[in-house]
From TrEMBL:
It comes from Snuella sedimenti. This is Prohibitin family protein. It comes from the Bacteria. InterPro entries: Band_7, Band_7/SPFH_dom_sf, Prohibitin. The lineage of its organism: Bacteria, Pseudomonadati, Bacteroidota, Flavobacteriia, Flavobacteriales. It is a single-pass membrane protein. Its main location: membrane. It is found in: Membrane. SUPFAM superfamilies: Band 7/SPFH domain. CDD domains: SPFH_prohibitin (cd03401).
Length: 271
């Protein structure tokens, strides 16, 4: 019984050492994350093999694992940039990004865990300044928002190509102009709209007038042709045809032949 404590103490020490060793050797990678292995006595950051995936891993206690989120993440930026004519414009934009999974070791080695501040933010700010500087405030306000969104995305993506980061999308959420510039643009757009409406009314009225003239000319031409075709001979023949039809009618009438103008018959009814 007296020897039991002497045996138990080393066992307890060994167990404690094993627990400490196991705690330093066991690594759990959560969902949506990956781990970069750092070998203290084996060349440092492991870049020639995939990162540690989700789940439980056992490593040498003298090594380290750096955890990265590998899901798509969002960066929201409020940027003040200058337009082509030097006016200050505020752009609210979001960038969707994620680290390139198989290059996570290279990302850790070259940029570290704060790669967002080191490369992504400077890249999107630089691209926004470059793109917005090509446009006037009026273009940014009215029709070019989709264009600048696409251009910022392409320029940012080009900057990040060799930075082990994947840019999925850039969204321009808002373009804010100084109030004086915004009011002036709105007045100009309103005037342009009113001018377009006035021009449309003028064109419509001109087309209606042209239509009336064409119709009147057509009627005049038709009457002219008809008048030219109605000779005395034709009128006499038409009168004779009408007299014959009336004579055949059972209604009471008196027909005086040759008493009308140009020898046309006069028809006297029973009224």
């Amino acid at each position: 019984m007296e020897k039991l404590p002497k045996i138990a103490l080393p066992l307890i020490a060994v167990l404690i050492g094993l627990v400490v060793l196991l705690s330093k050797s066991a690594v759990t990678v959560d969902s949506g994350e990956a781990g970069v292995l750092y070998k203290t006595f084996g060349g440092g950051v492991v870049t020639d093999s995939p990162p540690l995936g989700e789940g439980f891993h056992v490593i040498a206690p003298w090594n380290k694992v750096f955890i990265y989120e590998v899901r798509q993440q969002e960066l929201f930026e409020k940027m003040k940039v200058l337009s082509s004519n030097g006016l200050e414009i505020q752009i609210d934009a979001s960038a969707w990004y994620e680290p390139v999974y198989n290059d996570l070791g290279n990302l850790h080695q070259s940029l570290g865990q704060n790669y967002l501040q080191r490369v992504i933010q400077p890249a999107i700010r630089s691209a926004a300044r470059s793109v917005v500087g090509r446009y006037t405030p009026e273009q940014l306000y009215s029709s070019k928002r989709d264009a600048i969104q696409d251009e910022i995305y392409l320029e940012t993506k080009k900057i990040l190509e060799k930075q082990y980061v994947q840019l999925n999308e850039v969204l321009v959420r808002d373009v804010t102009l100084p109030n004086t510039i915004k009011d002036a643009i709105e007045r100009k757009l309103k005037q342009e709209q009113e001018s377009l409406e006035y021009e449309f009314r003028l064109v419509t009225a001109a087309k209606e007038a042209e239509k009336v003239i064409i119709e009147a000319q057509g009627k005049a031409d038709a009457n002219k042709i008809l008048s030219a075709s109605l000779t005395d001979k034709i009128l006499q023949d038409k009168g004779i045809e009408a007299t014959i039809k009336l004579a055949e009618s059972p209604n009471s009438k008196v027909i005086v032949i040759g008493s009308g103008d140009s020898g046309m018959p006069i028809i006297l009814g029973n009224q």
